[in-house]
Predict the 3D structure of the following.
Amino acid sequence: MPVYSLQPAAPGFQEIEVQVQSRLQIPSFQMLGLPSKEILEARERIIAAFESSGFTFPRRRVVVNLSPPDLPKSGTHYDLAVAVAILMAGDSRWRDRNFFAWGELNLDGEVRPKGWAATWLDYFLHREEKREASDISVATWLAHPDDAQVLKQLIQWRQQRGLKVPKRLLWIPFQNLQDFETLSESMQDLAIETTTPSAPAADSVLASSKTKQNPVLPPISSALLRWLKIAMVGQHHWLLLGSKGAGKSSVLHWISALACENDPQLSWERMTLFRHLSQETATPVQRIHAQNRPANLLGYFKRDEFVPGDLLCAHGGILIADEFPEWPRDSKECLREPLEEERVTLTRRGGRVNLPCRLQWVGTGNLCPCGGIPAHLPHLDRNVAHSCRCTPDVADRYLRRLGGPILDRLDVVTLIGNPADSHSLDPVSIRLEIYEAQKKLIHYFNRLPRFIGASEMERMIHDQPVIAHFLQSKKSMSFRSRHKMIRMACSIAALDQKHRDPFSPDQVTEAHLIEAWMGRPESWLFRN
């Protein structure tokens, strides 16, 4: 008669078995297995709930062990599991069944919902995959009806998007500890028959972009719109540097509006990370400012539980970094692994996490402290309002805050001056243009350009004489930099291809490579 609960771990959950032993000794109630203070306080809640529900707490020595004993336990969700395990102790009716219990008890015996249904479902899916063919036992979940309702919505959400759903998941509603009397009679099945998803899996990343609601957006210049399309087509990491009034804030509004629905699997990973149903149909756009520290970006441990940071909040979406040159150095350096490896690795006293962090990074910043255009940069349209008032040393020191290793991990670093023209454009046509270009790239590469591996990039260089000839004049570029330039050139080629013909790398011309080169920091920032 095993009764289990789950302990939040980093990442996911750790299965905890609640073991109960009752001995004929001086009555006492002891909890083992490194319980936290709130778990030890559960002893009084459980005894009071027994009395309020009409049960008699054993007049014996009761020892509860939360196994494994070397893992620290915390949280109030163990209340229901411990109470049910005590009620089932010594009863042969439940010997061959496995129960998972999740809930907090009030003093009157009422069960309170604890949420985190997304992570529960993810755990049961992994458990179903690992279960041996000879093991025919089915998990039975004891929880509040509100938690079960959210779990049912999540099963339907996965089914509609073509993701795997549990074959069978039994649930017993627990609104009060008195419901234990009707345990066998109230068993329900949460499983839902699988149906064919409404949209093809290959287009699920982009399907919602056609029907997204139209917001009112500020005017944007033609040059900025061009770079915006390129960055959005390939989901490239983009740093936008310019003077005050150049339109950087307008670009951020457009990025939020043009963000497409992300991959259902990425949405699910984000939902399990935060353990609740939120933003399940939209790409998250997380906006952070210069005051953020590494702990806020990467995450931290609180009472041995991992609290995700801003980078993980934007998993599957877009992370907008305002005033990036103003960021502290340690906050900039912590972006290296997430931007390159698409993972967040954190080792602290509370534990170690290694979580996926797949996002598009977009940053903005000024060119000097006064917000003008330094004289030593490439020629841009200047006027009196945007002329730099800083000395050359001050302006040069400001740009040196952008370290080379971080810039090398960005796909696009563009320099803009005063906008020569600004237009009020229809976001629907632009969104559909981006959608069609992405569809062509996914059809050929089976992924967007930013996610193409280095080995495939080298094969493309070897097979395309135009690309190989262009790179001969750029021998100072690192492998990472030239691969990013070619990926961006593929996005430009797919964007310029007006017809619905299939995309192939031989359509990348020298003009596309030159435009992609202009988006690399080596083309202007490192020249002097």
User: Anything to note?
Assistant: Confidence is low (pLDDT under 50) at residues 132-136, 194-212, 277-281. Residues 358 and 451 are 10 Å apart (CA to CA).
